[in-house]
Structures are given as structure tokens and as C-alpha cells.
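Study this pair:
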Amino acid sequence: MVRLHLHLLSDSTGETLENIAKAALAQYDDVETVRHFWPMVRTELHLERILQEIAHNPGLVIFTLVNPVTRRILEGRCAQLGLPAVAPLDPVNDALSGLLGQTAKARPGRQHALDAAYFARVDAIQFTIAHDDGIGAENWEEADIVLAGVSRSSKTPTSIYLANRGYKTANIPVVIESPPPPALFTLRGPLVVGLTTSADRLIQVRRNRLLSLNQAPDTSYVDEDAVSRELTFARRMFADTGWPVIDVTRRSIEETAAAIIALVQEKREGAA
């Protein structure tokens, strides 16, 4: 097991850096990462305190600093310490500058400005929370996406992720004993997507859920035959309606959401 100190320095929220680091580290096994997260680094005094920590815990430094002074100080000190300092957005900015014939604006956190997209994302999150687990069927036509699936098929976390990407998302559980309201089958605006999974995986997730609630994991909720009937019922419904279906068995929430977004874009392009 390799131990790595990873220093992430940003003059904004650091969200971009965290995503980059997460994606890169996912490619390596047996690495124990100690993350040192330094957001809102905008003064030399603040940077000096961080540099002391970097010297005490040497490792990889990844940064997104647009201020040329703080950036120069960081790169110089890292060079003195013999530590790699990587600015992952530089190649992208260089390419854009060449293609657009413009110099990048050195504005920290500009991507987080309160523009129309920001408020649309907030609106999507509010809508999604208010239409979780079959609630608010009368408003489903206002959604961008409606997810249907049996209990514990990742509907809610996927909905929240999609909302953070700006998509109004409702979700509804598919239950044999309680069929969905007719409104679900007459939607015209939203993309309705069926989520399914393997019986083994679903039983495992449900057992863990029951255990977390201190409930006995021996009900029909986790019975193999009952779960198989639920999944068969849901898949038949999806096939009869012609909804696209995504198997979430081996997908992360991010991968499922990416597949759904691709379907939404395909639908919109077809309509255009």
C-alpha cells in the first residue's frame, strides 16, 4: 500500500479539483490517499500557511489559481521542495485561447457566478425533492425526466444527481400491489426511463437497508421469489410502454445519470 499526500489548492470552491483528483485516483489500486483540501486561496498570507503544511507533508500538489502572483509563489516553492505542482486546466485554457484568439479572464470562481443556469439548477433541485417517491403526479408533465423502478433501484440518488445537473426529475416506485397512476402513461414532455437491476444485487441492497433500520431482514421485501416477481412486473411494464431501460446493477449513480442525460439529449435532437 502506497501512501500519498495530495494537496488540492483552489482560489474558488475547489469542486473542479476534487472531481479531477477523484477521476485520476480511480485509475490506481492500493493507494492510501491523504487529502489536504485548500479552497478559497486568494492571498499570499493564506498561501504561506498552506506552503508550511505542504513542506511538512510533501506530496502531489494540484492547483487552480488564476492570480499570477500566488501561482508563481506556489510553483517556485514546490520547485524548491522538489514536489510536482500540476495545473490541470492549463492545457484546456491554452487550446481555447488559441482557437478563440482570446486570453482567459483571470477571475476566480467565475464558473460559479449566479447566472441563469445557477437558478435553473436550484429550481430543478427544489422540483426534484418535491416529487420524490411518486409525490406530485399532477406536476409530472413539468419534469424533464421521470424515473420508474422498484424499491431501492437508485431512483432517488439518481434523481438528485440529475437535479444538480439542472434536470427537473420526478421518480415513482413500481409496486405490484399498487400500480402507478394513469398520469404516468400519458406524459408527453418528460423522458420516462425505467431503472432495473439484478435480483441478487437488489436483495443485497434491501437487506442492508433493513439492517440499517434495525429491522429483521426476513420479510417478503427480500424474498428471492417476491423480488423476482417485482422485477419481472417492472420489466414487462417498461417493455409494454416502450420506455428506455437502464440496468443499474454495475453502474454508479454518475454512470446511470450520464446515460439518462444522453437519452434526453437524443430526444431533444430528435424533436428539433
Notes: Residues 2-111 form a domain with the Rossmann fold fold (CATH 3.40.50).
